[in-house]
Design goal:
Blueprint: H1 2-18, E1 37-39, E2 42-44, E3 49-52, E4 55-60, E5 63-70
Antiparallel strand pairs: 1-2, 3-4, 4-5
Length: 71
Amino acid sequence: MKTAFALILATTAALSACTRVIERQTPAPAPIAPGACLWEGQQTSSGGTSCRDHSTFRCSNGTWEQTANRC
């Protein structure tokens, strides 16, 4: 009887540890500067360039525009 009680107590303790919910605060996203572009969470100022799919893109006042250059 003591063994069964000890087993139930140990099982209950183990299961209660597995069901805890840990909440973490996520940082608020940084505000985007006027005229800046955003790509994969990285902010680029107007005039900045990025290489995607062997093409160069330039940030032009908040929008990405493809240039004639290859990268």
